[in-house]
Amino acid sequence: MKGRAKRAKEASDVLRELGYRLTPQRMLILAAVQASDSHISAEEIYSQVRAQYPHVNISTVYRTLDLLKGLSLVTETDLGEGRVRYHYADKGHHHHLVCERCGAIIEVDEDLFLPLKRTLLKDYHFQANIRHFAIFGRCAKCPR
Amino acid sequence: MKGRAKRAKEASDVLRELGYRLTPQRMLILAAVQASDSHISAEEIYSQVRAQYPHVNISTVYRTLDLLKGLSLVTETDLGEGRVRYHYADKGHHHHLVCERCGAIIEVDEDLFLPLKRTLLKDYHFQANIRHFAIFGRCAKCPR
DNA sequence: GTTGCGCCTGCAAGCTATTGCGATAACCTC
DNA sequence: GAGGTTATCGCAATAGCTTGCAGGCGCAAC
Q: B95-141: per-residue pLDDT in tens?
């Protein structure tokens, strides 16, 4: 998969250029997030990485995800499952509508938040960092 | 404090009318949330309640907060401190802008989200339940 | 290839929050 | 006021995530 390999290279270049070390743990964690087509949990990343590198510790997974998150290489979403999920951030960001009744998850484009972002900047001089958002409520199939 | 006593009565009426039992634990937890002028954490509620009723368990606090949350009597906010905070829900809902650099917390009115709510309802038929929201970013005093 | 600095990791303890289960007590009926 | 039903509670175990610390390893300089 060419696109994936290219993305991986770019991401590790970002790390190297910023002076971060390219450890096997970091590469594997990054690869796991990139290989996941949807949103992946820390535990899932952990077991994938451990398949190739049994000594890794779960805390390393969390620390690396934190690092990647800070560099905007991955985004984090809380869909209200009691665990956070991660997503590689090369595609356009998107948000989630989570139905409180049936659990359905609807992805919506980030453009939806542009008016809100503009208002916050204009009225509050607040530069909102809206990457991944989960909005809870009731979906079309679950009437009130 | 008349207003507070009145609110407490109303809240316990809601519980009773819905068939929930009015236990001293619940009353004390409710009172603690109501007595807090700002947002209160589960641990703070726990120690306040325990001062009057030493046998209470922290799990009861969480379970009660969950119940009250479901009944829209309290709202829950995650301000990114690693612990969730609670707030009595009789006043108009509001949201928070949290500065990722200096930690400042700015309260904003819920009206700000009305356009977004309308869009979600119109385009996705999704009835968003936006009570308490935290938006992270950079405040006016922390330039980029 | 070797050396050395210090970033990074593994380990273990700790924190917030949740859950299963048996015991208790709130509420209804009489 | 007494008794029965069952919602609720306390306890302890557990899950998800974080943190302090000591030792290991990536990387650059030689």
A: 889 888 788 888 898 888 999 999 999 999 999 988 778 888 888 88
Residues 72-111 of B with CB under 7 A from strand D: 82
Question: Which positions ≥6 away from A138 have C-beta within 8 Å?
Answer: A99, A100, A101, A144, B126, B127, B129
The architecture that CATH gives domain A2-88 is Orthogonal Bundle (1.10)
The bridge status of strand A74-78 relative to strand A84-88 is: antiparallel
At residue B87's C-alpha, the angle toward residues B30 and B132, to 5°, is: 140
Q: How far is A3 from chain B (nearest CA, A)?
A: 31
* Angstrom distance, A117 CA to C12 C1': 43
Q: Can you give the residue ranges of every domain in chain B?
A: 2-88, 94-137
**Class of the CATH-defined domain A94-137:** alpha beta
Contact B136 A128 (CB under 8 A): yes
